[in-house]
Amino acid sequence: MRFRAAFFKALALSPLWLGALGAYAQKAHPKTLERYDEVGPALLSCWRPPPGSEGMEITLIFSFKRNGEILGKPRISHTKLMGDLDEQKRFVASALVALARCTPLHISDGLGGAIAGHPFAMLFRAAPRQTGI
Length: 133
Prior knowledge:
This protein has 133 residues and is an alpha+beta fold. It has a single domain (2-125), classed as Fusion Protein Consisting Of Minor Coat Protein, Glycine Rich Linker, Tola, And A His Tag, Chain: A, Domain 2. Helix content is 36%, strand content 20%. It contains five helices and three strands. A three-stranded antiparallel sheet has the order 2-1-3. Helix 1 runs parallel beside helix 4. The longest helix has 18 residues, at 85-102. Mean pLDDT is 84; it is low at 15-27.
């Protein structure tokens, strides 16, 4: 279990993750955000959880610069991972890809000044499968 935690921590802290995911950096959310409560939904709009990840979750903590770029590297504060190691890796990578796709966010000057440098916690949760009634 310690190996897995260390692996995922190393993955999130890797200086290569943004560069490696740069190919995915399409501007998926071009709308200018004006309010704090629009940031989470904007990031989630870029997220595509991999098949078979139902019930998994990860919380990433990161900060933004005034211009909507990510400041530093995201940290993992919580995980609920299931399945084999490859499925877990795909799930963690999907959250990091969402950040790469969506950032820098298009934010207003007012919002940029309000959120710059402050920790932002983002929960990525793959909804459990719905069973028919």
